[in-house]
Design goal:
The protein is α+β, with helices and mostly antiparallel strands. It folds into 2 domains: 87 residues, Nuclear Transport Factor 2, Chain: A (Roll); 80 residues, Archaeosine Trna-guanine Transglycosylase, Chain: A, domain 4, CATH 2.30.130. 27% of the residues lie in helices and 32% in strands. The longest helix is centred in the first third of the chain and has 15 residues. Required for proper 34S pre-rRNA processing and 60S ribosome subunit assembly. One of its GO terms (cellular component) is nucleolus.
Length: 180
């Protein structure tokens, strides 16, 4: 596992800032130890420094993964968060969207959230702001990007997309054939 280059570290922290803002420091300095981000085969892993030291005795070819995969860099050097990062980012999310119970399944199938499926939204969220999508029972379902600001959502048409789908918990089932 190698350290992220300066360019990739900048991309990662900008993306984290889009979803959790200044709470990035709480991801790194946790009560149970210090955590860091490492890269292996274009994937970004979130791992404690204690486990990282233990993994140094393995070569890169022997190592499959260490820690939690947060995302993958594409060939154009863009970072896409994996759903495995959801439970680490959800407690620190600054902007949230709650979907109606009747729309949860549609979201988990990979659809965008229209205004008619929107139950609640945090105040003062800007357009293209990263959000965590929740069910009404406060279960994190996935990541999204707001298509409209909070004020624009109030006057939008019921079929207008309010939140663009990024990733969701349903990916495990949809990608079941390709994972193994």
């Amino acid at each position: 596992m190698k350290r992220l280059s300066d360019e990739r570290a900048k991309i990662l922290f900008e993306k984290l800032n889009k979803y959790i803002g200044t709470n990035v420091t709480q991801l790194i300095d946790r009560p149970d130890g210090t955590y860091c981000f490492r890269e292996l085969r274009d994937r970004v892993y979130y791992v404690s420094e204690r486990i990282l030291k233990l993994s140094e005795c393995f070569s890169g070819k022997q190592l499959v993964s260490v820690g939690t995969c947060f995302g993958k860099f594409s060939k154009t050097n863009k970072l896409k968060f994996h759903i495995t990062a959801l439970y680490y980012l959800a407690p620190y999310a600054q902007h949230k969207v709650w979907v109606k119970p009747s729309f949860e399944q549609q979201y988990l199938y990979g659809n965008n959230v229209p205004k008619s499926g929107l139950a609640r939204i945090t105040e003062n969220a800007a357009q293209y702001q990263g959000v965590v999508v929740y069910s009404m029972s406060d279960l994190p379902l996935g990541f999204g990007v707001l298509a409209r600001s909070t004020t624009d959502c109030k006057t939008a048409d019921p079929l207008t997309a309010v939140c663009y789908h990024q990733s969701d918990l349903g990916e495990y089932i949809r990608a079941e054939d390709t994972l193994f």
